[in-house]
Amino acid sequence: MSSVIYQGIFFLFILLLLAIPLGWYIKEIMQGRVPRGVRFLRPLERLFYKVIGSASKKEMSAKRYIFTVLLLSFCSILLLILILMTQHFFPGGDSVKNLSLSLAINTAVSFVTNTNWQAYAGETTLSNLSQMFGLTVQNFISAGVGLSVLVALLRGFSQIRKKALGNFWQDLTRSLVYILLPLSFILAVILISQGTVQTLQSGLSYQGLEEKDAWLSLGPVASQVAIKQLGTNGGGFFGANSAYPFENPTLLSNFLENIAILLIPTALIFTFGFWVKDWKQGRTILVVSLIFLLLAFLGVAFSEFTGINSTQVLGTMNLEGKEVRFGIGWSSLWTVATTAASNGSVNSMLDSFTPLGGAVPMFLMQLGEIIFGGVGSGLYGMLAFLMLAVFIAGLLVGRTPEYLGKKIEAFDIKMASLVILTPLMLTLFGAMALVLHPDIMTWLTNNGPHAFSELLYGATSLANNNGSAFGGLIADTSYLNVLGSILMLISRYLPIVAILFLAENMGAKKKAALSSGTLSTVSPTFMSMLMIVILVIGALSFLPSLALGPIAEFFTLK
How many helices and strands, by DSSP H and E, does the chain display? Predict the structure, then answer.
C-alpha cells in the first residue's frame, strides 16, 4: 500500500509541474496573445475565420453566445447521425452495418455533449471513417466548446460594467488551433512510439491458437486516444477502452494517458488564477480538488487491497477485472481520475471492483463532475459551488456576499443553483426511469444490490456527462438510448445556458473595493466551508440511493 501512495504523490507532482506553464499558456492564447513558438499556426487560425465569415469578428451577448453554441451542437449532432447511419456505403464500411436510429442518436448526442457513452464496441460497430471524421472530430469540438464557455465566464468575472462575453468562434478556434491540436499531436506521437496502433488499415487476418482464421481490428487509434484523454472525452476506439493493449500498451503509455486526463482541467485552475490576477483564488480550488482526489484515490486503493474474501494465493487483494501490468495502484488512480475529470475512459472493469471501491468513483460523479471535471465544464461547475458557499457564508455572518469584488445577488444564485442541481436531479430521475421499466431485470447481468449499483452508475454517468460504464447493464436498447440522449442533452446545455447568463450578469457589475468586512475566499476556513457545501449537497442527495447499492452490498458480503 505504501508504494501506491508514492505512485500517487509522484503522479501529482508531474501533473502540477506540467499544469502550471500550460495554465499560463492557455490564458495567453485565450486572451488573444499568441506566444512566439506557436505563431506558425496563425495561418490556420485565419483560415478558420475566413470560412466562418463576419460572425467571427463581432462580440456576443449571452443570448448570442448561447444561440451559437446550441446551433453548432445541433448541426454536429445531425451530421454525426448521418455519418453513423450511412457508414456502410462509404469507403472502408464493407465490414460494418449502418447504426439503428436510436443508437445513432445516442452516439451522436454522447460525443457532441462530451459524454462519450458507448452502447457499442467500436472495433466491430464503426468504420475507420466514422471513427475519424465522426467521433474524433467531435472529441475536439466538444472540448473546445467547454473551454470557450469557461473563458466567457472568466471574462464576466474580470471585466467591469460590460455585458459582451467575447466571440464564441474566436474562443473555439483558439482552443482548437493552439491548445487541443498541438497537445494531441504530441501525445499521439508518444503513444505511437509505445505501440499504440495508428494506421488506415481496418485490420488483418491471422491464424489463432486453434488454427482457425481470426480477425485483428486495427485503425487510427493513437490520434483518437490522444484527444479522448486530453479533451476529457473518454470514448475508446476499442470496446475494452484503455484496458486494451492496442490503446494502452505499456506502463509509460498508461502514465501519460492518466496525466492527460487531468492535465487541461488542472491547468485551467491556474489559468483562472492568472486571469483574475489573484493566484490565491485559484489555489482555493486547487487545494479543495486535490484533497477530494487524494481521499478518493486512497479510498479506492485501500478497498481493493483489503478486498472482501481472502485467498491463499492473493491474500485479500482484489485483482479481478484489472490488468496485471497496471495492478491495483495504477488502476485505482485511473479510476478516480476518470470519474473526477468527466473523462469516462477505463483501464480496468469497474463492475469487478469491491462495493466501496466502486462507490467512490460513483460518488465523485454525483458531486457534479467538479473535482477537476471536464475541460471547462469542471471549473465552471466548481465556481458555481464556490459562489453558493460564499452566499451561505455571507448569510451566516451577516455580510453581503461578494466574490472577486462583485456582489452575488439573487439572479447569480439562481443560475449557480441551476448548474449544481441539474445533473443531480437528472441522476435521480434517470435511475427512477430505469428502475420503473418492466424489462429492467432483463438488461442486468446481476441481481440484488450489485444490480442496483450497475443501474445507478449508468444513470449517474449519463446525467453527469461522464460516459464511463460500470458494466453489467445492456446499454443498446431503444429505451436506454432515448433516455440517455435526453439526460446527456439537458445535463450539458442547461448548465451552459445558466453559466453564460451568469457571466453576462457578473460582467455588467461594478467592482467594489475590498474592506475589513469582505469575506476571505482564500483562507483555510473558507476551503473547509466549500468542501462541506460540496459534501452536504452530494451526501443528502445520494446517500439513500448509495445505501441501496454499494453500501448494502458491502454489508451483505461482509
Answer: 20, 4
In a 13 Å sphere around the CA of 207, the CA atoms on its Cβ side amount to 2
Query: Is residue 232 in some structural domain?
Result: yes
**pLDDT tens, residue by residue, 284-299:** 999 999 999 999 999 9
Tell me whether residue 452 is in a domain. no
At residue 496, what is the residue type? I
Tell me the pLDDT of the chain averaged across its residues: 91
Confidence of residue 394 (pLDDT cuts 50, 70, 90): confident
Question: Could you please report the per-residue DSSP string of 444-468?
Answer: BS--HHHHHHHHHHHHHHHHTT---
φ/ψ (deg, to 5) at 335: -60, -45
Residue type at 106 in one-letter notation? N
Identify the band that residue 540 occupies on the pLDDT scale cut at 50, 70 and 90. Answer: confident
Helix (H, G, I), strand (E, B) or coil at 435: helix
The three three-digit cell numbers of residue 290, written as one number: 486535490
CA gap 492, 423 in Å, rounded? 9
Spatial separation of the C-alpha atoms in residues 242 and 124, rounded to whole Å: 16
The answer to whether residue 189 sits within a structural domain is yes
Given this model, what pLDDT does residue 314 score? 46
Sign of CA dihedral 477, 480, 482, 488: negative
Q: Would residue 130 count as lying in a domain?
A: yes
Report residue 354: phi and psi, to 5°.
-65, 160
Q: Please tell me the total count of domains within the chain.
A: 1
Interhelix angle 524-548/279-306, rounded to 10 degrees, is 40
Residue 558: per-residue pLDDT: 62
- Contact between 243 and 331 under an 8 Å Cβ cutoff? The reply is no
pLDDT band (50, 70, 90) for residue 215: confident
Q: Which three cell numbers, joined as nine digits, stand for 553?
A: 452490498
Mean pLDDT in residue range 223-248: 91
Predicted TM-score (pTM) of the model is 0.93
Residue 517: which pLDDT band, with cuts at 50, 70 and 90? low
Q: How many other CB atoms sit within 10 Å of the CB of residue 95?
A: 12
Q: Kindly tell me the sign of the dihedral angle through the C-alpha atoms of 32, 33, 37, 43.
A: positive
- Domain residues for 137? 56-268
Cα atoms found within 13 Å of the Cα of residue 504, Cβ hemisphere only: 17
